[in-house]
Predict the structure.
Amino acid sequence: MSFLDYAPAPESTSILHLKKSYGLFIDGSFVKGHGKSFSTISPATEETIAEISSANAKDVDAAVGAARRAYDRTWSKLSGADRGKYLFRIARLVQERARELAVAESLDNGKPIKESRDVDVPLVAAWFFYYAGWADKLDYAGLGANPRALGVAAQVIPWNFPLLMLAWKIAPALAAGNTVVIKPAETTPLSALLFAEILQQAELPDGVVNIITGAGETGSLLVNHPDVNKVAFTGSTAVGRAIAKSTAGTGKKLTLELGGKAANIVFDDAPIDQAIEGIVNGIFFNQGHVCCAGSRLLVQENVHDEVVDRLKDRLSTLRLGDPLDKNTDIGAINSKAQLERIRELSNIGEAEGAERWTAPCELPAKGFWFAPTIFTNVSTSNRIARDEVFGPVLSVLTFRTPAEAIAKANNTPYGLSAGIWSDKGSRVLAVADKLRAGVIWANTFNQFDPASPFGGYKESGYGREGGRHGLAAYLTSSAVASAATTRGASK
Amino acid sequence: MTRLAVPKTYKLYIGGKFPRSESGRVYEILSSKGAFLANAAQGSRKDARDAVVAARAAFPGWSGATGYNRGQVLYRIAELLEGRRAQFIDEIRQSEGVPAVAAARQVDAAIDVWVWYAGWADKYLQVAGNGNPVSGPYFNISTPEPTGVVAIVAPQQSSLLGLVSVLAPAILSGNTVVLIASEKFALSAISLTEVLATSDVPGGVVNVLTGSAAEIAPWLASHADVNALDLAGAEALDWISLQVSAADTLKRVLAPESGVPAPSVERVTFFTETKTIWHTKALI
Amino acid sequence: MTIDRAVALAPAQRATDLIGGDLTEKSLRLHLEGLPGVDAVGLEARAAALGTRSIKTTSKAWALDKIIELIDLTTLEGADTPGKISSLVAKAMTPDASDPSTPRVAAVCVYGDMVPYAVAALGSSHSAGRDDGINVAAVATAFPSGRASLPVKIADTKDAVAAGADEIDMVIDRGAFLSGSYGLVFDQIVAVKEACRREDGTYAHLKVILETGELNTYDNVRRASWLAILAGGDFIKTSTGKVSPAATLPVTLLMLQVVADWYRLTGGASGGQRIGVKPAGGIRTSKDAIKYLVTVAETVGEEWLQPHLFRFGASSLLNDVLLQRQKLTTGHYSGPDYVTMD
């Protein structure tokens, strides 16, 4: 036998007790939605996991109404300290149910259990812990004394990190004193619905968080609801643009965390073995379904061949397959639609003359899969070097000087993240200064922390999530708030 | 015998130069009583385009200067304004039809606001940024950086104070600006460009277009190489359309304000982007 | 210190092939200092990730046997006696008397003066050049400090080889390395290698102990690993076991990466040279040892999991593996009274 054919090590699903169908979580209880219900499936097997309600206009109205009532009657009257205590409770419950949440996430999303177990869920708990402590310290958030909550926050989140994105949205919103209506992505509603159970366990007052499921239409109804004060969206630039338009002139405070096409820049003095790991982590983490993925590898020309050779060797050791197996490195593509997009863009890459290399790994017969893929001989004008693929596909480009690397890295409408690999501190810092991106990872990649602000430049969106900066998205300074009130009164 | 006056014809201020509008158009700036004060260039969409090119070209240098340097350059402007105090008072008095005392108050307030903002150039970063205590062996810091090219519709009802209150906070951090002056009270803006042209502010950092905001603003709102839009003086325009148009390239948009925006560090940070840098830390 | 000393170094084959015929202190130094740096955080994160592999059922059974086959069962005490050595040898030959299917260890590792007792105790089980026996490894060169003159180190080595040692575990002069005298370290390894030569022209295998706990930085470990390979080492070994930290997974991963680089550089699949790696000291549990197997398999490849390319320098590890093995066979947990002390 080959040792490397590790015997199956499946994570047990016995810890997970799912219902056959889930309603909408409105005003503290699960209610049936009035839209057409849909199935959520496991992308690894295409088997149905549960039946999910869909919220129509009436349901969205009910959810926003519940959030408004909760804001007016309960949440805005609580002390910051008490809001914080609820968040601490939630954080603890997430830790206690961590295994269950990780299994649900991998089942519904297709991501490897080692990622949901070691990255997603621990960060979810960390996010609630971090913001819990802010709830009674908002005077220090940087908006002056007595900053005020905005009111009802409408939040729409993507399918790539379903529970983590929920935490990024809900934790700061509640800490700042807002109430929430949140819509998880239609392909990954499961962990949010388990999270609703956690809110019940935590005895969070009814209506403070409402979770409604559905497709894009539900999301549109939510963000355009007139009684919403704040809109936070994470997802594609196209949808973000549409939301920016539809909320224009409404006075709703908007934060957007959108797409990216990050450059991962490798200089010839890079710590080579760690750079290879960073490249792999940068683009193949979570099947490349990461807005900040290092999808454009910019390699100094004199080390291009060596880097590509080592990268291919390394990719050949990645293990693709059952997301619930503890040894799986690459899980399933989240949906058929996404798989088709990845295939289409990859085919275009080939047609445009880039050289395609695919890691030698067997793809399971059922489910949605795409093997790790590298394109070399890519030009800056190729679509695989410009469009966000949102999949395990890396485009390799070269540069000769730091100035050229910076120019190529910045030559995109996006500006979310970038990576720099070099042993020379002065160069790392100077390059970091010149990159037009919101998160720069130097000699590392894809690191996340609740204390660290995250968000983009240019068409990657605006506003920051995480850290002290993340609070600003859910607060207004007293001065601005009273000015707005005065203006309103004079009209 | 009375002396025959020399009537003034002003031009645009783009890239540190004073070109005529490419459209060849001019309009008359009148006093509050309707008397002719000067001819001003009536900027066009192509002037707006040229101004954006100039602003973009100036961005690397201006944003790359040290905060201390930008602060000094901006403080120098205050000195020059002080030197031309009488001229600004006179222009405001004629344009706005206010008594000399009120005009003087506006000029003094404008200079003081300018000095206040100039002092932020090497400090806003400390107030808006911070180190982040991440759970791992990483150095992690967040600092604000200028957003890029900012298009501004200046307050329309205030000659100098409104202008200064939107211009200074945008440029102190390193942004470069294309500003549409108050159409009616354009004299202060024009005089300010003469101050800027003789100052150490590099050409292209501030570009001033006179003319119709309603005509020019849509071209700036939709321009893909503009990063942010300050609609401070756009209350009377169809500003929602401008905001919708700006959304095509996800510009940062500051909504209109009635009156003169109060000095605030939020105005500075609104036109900045927070950059967070991680670096590994290890002894071995 | 200056680096322009054009001191010629011993013309070891690998070094002259790579760096050039006029091998000097300077050329060696430039070569070592030109190696890519190591980012400690990334290296440790990669090692930790490899450590999360879940090795179950059949894979675990295979791994446990493999660990035994790769052990250098070690005793390196001032209190060692012929009796202690024969007891160690007995354990090496029959690790678990209750289960004859248990494999034998790769070698016993002892001080030089104990070699004759080990050879005698092994009797016909001593490999003495065959593939199917148990090797005798001797630590040499003023182990563990290495603080002795070169003639003493050479004598120490020759003595052990003459007594029948199949493998020599030498220590490098860490003081010389840390002060930048790479050439001195290099020449000593070359000299010890030559001392490993037997009368019939064959050589005892040379393991070069870097004592990574004293080299301190990963950059130093990478340089020392290259230096040891260039000077002719057959194995690079982490530690003496007398200094803390001894073997760690990140250090071993780094040394495996060097070995992979050397293999790639010398031809890879078409005739590349395979250098062995031996983590020693501090590996006490099966769980830890399995992490090393995973790390070897996923970096240099599975073919390195053979006694002539990978060893564990350990003493208490063997018993933990035997307990785990008994658990797998019987289905219930075992206890320390069901394995022999030594």
Notes: DSSP finds 16 helices and 20 strands in chain A. The interface with chain C takes residues 1-9, 114, 118, 269-274, 277-278, 317, 326-327, 423, 443-444 of chain A (CB under 8 Å).
